[in-house]
Amino acid sequence: MLNVLFSAKNCNGKDEWSAEFVVLGAPKLPEGCECTEALNVTAKLKIKKPKDDGGVPITGYTIEKLDPETGKWVRAAFVPANKTGYGDEFEATIPNLKNGQPYKFRVKAENDEGESEFTYTDVSLTLIILIEILLKIEILG
Fold first, then answer.
1. Domains in the chain, start-ordered, CATH in brackets?
2. Are 112 and 56 in contact, with CB atoms under 8 Å apart?
3. Is the pTM of this model over 0.85?
4. Of residues 67, 86, 64, the one with CA closest to residue 77
5. Distance between terminal CA atoms of the chain?
6. CB-CB contact of 37 with 95 (8 Å)
């Protein structure tokens, strides 16, 4: 919010008035992006929402992954704002990853006025394959 004081003066006198302006813009960047799990071709990210939505409700979050084969950022998921809950953070599942490949992620917030800068995960992660080993023990009598 921006408060502005106006003043006008002429031979007939002087007058002052003030006005409040709401400045709308793109949201600030999300406060954090952390990988909490990486198993079997998926990763779970914990994303902390931005503190400033730009004066306009956030419409969603775009998550990108750094493709280990091409070295280019590609869209991995979009999470609509109505799927993030009311708290200041949410989880997102990123599907279709390749086991054994290193990945980095980044996320940006979006509203009707524009997009935030990206927030990046701190480290690269490599997905592991979940192996279940079933042991069958027969006891011979």
1. 32-126 (2.60.40.10)
2. yes
3. no
4. 64
5. 82
6. no
* Amino acid, res. 43: A
- Could you identify the residue written with the tokens 């997009």? 115
Cα distance between residue 114 and residue 67, in whole Å: 25
Amino acid found at 17: W
Show pLDDT as tens, one digit a residue, over the chain (141 residues): 678 888 889 998 898 989 888 889 999 999 999 988 888 788 999 999 999 999 999 999 999 999 988 999 999 999 999 999 999 999 999 999 888 888 899 999 999 999 999 999 876 666 554 433 333 344 444
Nearest by Cα to 25 from 49, 71, 57:
57
What single string gives the DSSP state of each residue in 30-75?
Answer: PSEEEEEEEETTEEEEEEEPPS--TTS-EEEEEEEEE-TTT--EEE
**Rounded Cα–Cα distance for residues 19 and 141 (Å):** 91
Residues in the chain: 141
Closest CA to 58 of 28, 31, 38: 28
